[in-house]
Design brief:
The chain is an all-alpha fold. The chain is built from 16 helices and two strands. The protein has one domain: Orthogonal Bundle (Farnesyl Diphosphate Synthase), CATH 1.10.600. The chain is 69% helix and 1% strand. It is globular, with a radius of gyration of 20 Å.
Length: 348
């Protein structure tokens, strides 16, 4: 289905070549001036009298991320026709969102005992767990300073509530560690907390800075939430792809950490008794046998779990796209639609 009006401005790249990275780059180019200001502010706020904080902060911030969440904030600011002129609050709030994201990455890598991210050693591998956690706390604190300077009471409430939701999602995931009985609803709660909630918040605070009306704000909230769900579902499916190394992940990372994601939930539920015994054995000790990952992937393929994970992702993607229908056609709206469409195709 083509969601872009024939009268709208189309992304100037050939349709058959459009991939997710292209869509991100195009949005980044649209928001180039804002992103330069956001990056300047981020590095300014990494300044500290403790050199190690600056060192770790810059190591993480410069590790090759796409600045996807700040891009969402500034894009949702610009999608509005009634945005105030000379408003720079979205710049500060974009930086706040990125600091929250960076802090959660530091904490997640410690909890998951991760050794690399985007092809580089994680901060906890280089500097140790204690230092990583404390620098994560520093980044959270910086985000709240930015919220109070650039935000209103409404944006402060949204951002602070999201920090709580993220923490709840992380604890819910830990409480279901290696739990093969975890159902799909609980999994959706986890990814909503850990991923979709910050996507949604990034969009909302951009909208609020642009003077969004109530219905526009609800639309941006829905867009961000459903995009986040789409993004994480595809990310979890990528872990079991045979030919991808995408978005800073190595193939099989989730499996090696014993994470219960949707492909495994579906595979376990559809497995026979003998296959369930295999799952129970390998999830408790996924790295005991080097062939475990390949055997797990065979079952996931047998029961079409990747395809069905993508089906769920497409549902959320459709809801996200439809959420933008209340906004007038613009290059920002069409670029966000292309971002959604290509995010689902990261497996193709």
């Amino acid at each position: 289905m083509n969601y872009i009006s024939p009268m709208a401005e189309i992304i100037p790249i050939h349709e058959h070549k459009v991939v997710f990275n292209d869509a991100v780059k195009y949005l980044s180019e649209l928001c180039k001036e804002d992103l330069q200001s956001i990056n300047t502010l981020i590095f300014e706020k990494l300044d500290s009298s403790v050199p190690l904080i600056q060192e770790i902060g810059k190591y993480l911030i410069l590790s090759g991320g796409k600045r996807l969440r700040p891009i969402l904030t500034t894009s949702c600011f610009h999608i509005l026709n009634n945005k105030p002129k000379h408003n720079i609050n979205h710049i500060g709030l974009s930086a706040a969102v990125e600091f929250i994201h960076a802090a959660t990455l530091l904490h997640d890598d410690v909890v998951d005992i991760s050794k690399d991210r985007r092809g580089k050693l994680t901060a906890n591998e280089v500097w140790g767990n204690k230092t990583s956690v404390l620098v994560g706390d520093f980044l959270f604190s910086r985000s709240f300073q930015l919220m109070t300077k650039y935000g209103t009471m409404e944006t402060l409430k949204i951002l602070s509530d999201t920090s709580v939701i993220i923490s709840e999602g992380e604890v819910l995931e830990i409480s279901n560690d290696k739990n093969l009985e975890m159902n799909e609803d609980t999994y959706f709660q986890v990814i909503n907390g850990k991923t979709a909630s910050l996507f949604s918040t990034a969009c909302q605070v951009g909208g609020l800075s642009g003077g969004a009306k109530d219905n526009e704000l609800l639309a941006l909230k829905s867009f961000g939430t459903n995009f986040g769900m789409t993004f994480q579902l595809i990310d979890d499916a990528i872990d079991y792809s045979s030919n991808l190394n995408t978005m800073g992940k190595n193939i099989g990372d989730d499996f090696k950490e014993g994470k219960i994601t949707l492909p495994i939930i579906l595979a376990y539920g559809r497995s026979n008794d003998k296959e369930k015994q295999f799952w129970q054995k390998v999830i408790s000790k996924p790295n005991e046998n080097v062939n475990n990952f390949n055997l797990a992937k065979e079952l996931i393929i047998k029961y079409k779990c990747i395809e069905d994970t993508v089906v769920r992702a497409r549902h959320f993607a459709d809801v996200a796209i439809d959420s933008l229908s209340i906004f007038n056609d613009s290059k920002y709206k069409n670029a966000l639609i292309k971002l959604i469409e290509t995010s689902v195709k990261r497996l193709s």
